[in-house]
Write a structure and sequence with these properties.
Layout (H helix, E strand, L loop, with lengths): L32 H22 L12 H17 L4
């Protein structure tokens, strides 16, 4: 039985006129306020929730009721959004 022909793959050479727009060397570092404000929001959110639970839902703002949970978790989600932009 005859042997089948072996296919030769062409070697890929990237085009020289197309270059990536961003490289690791051209990225600027994040400003100092970004990680500072993200950590501040995390501490604020956790502190808000701890005070809310330890005060038996009387503090920080009694009129908000269970919306105090939304304030605490919202601050933590805001910090996650900021940290996703950190380089």
């Amino acid at each position: 039985m005859p042997k089948s022909q072996v296919r030769k793959k062409k070697v890929y050479t990237p085009p020289t006129d197309v270059r990536p727009t961003t490289t690791a060397a051209t990225r600027k570092p994040s400003p100092l306020w970004l990680p500072v404000s993200a950590v501040s929001l995390i501490v604020f959110g956790i502190g808000w929730l701890v005070v809310y639970y330890l005060s038996e839902q009387e503090y920080p703002v009694a009129e908000l009721g269970y919306w105090n949970l939304a304030v605490g978790f919202g601050a933590m989600v805001g910090s996650l959004i900021l940290l996703s932009r950190w380089r």
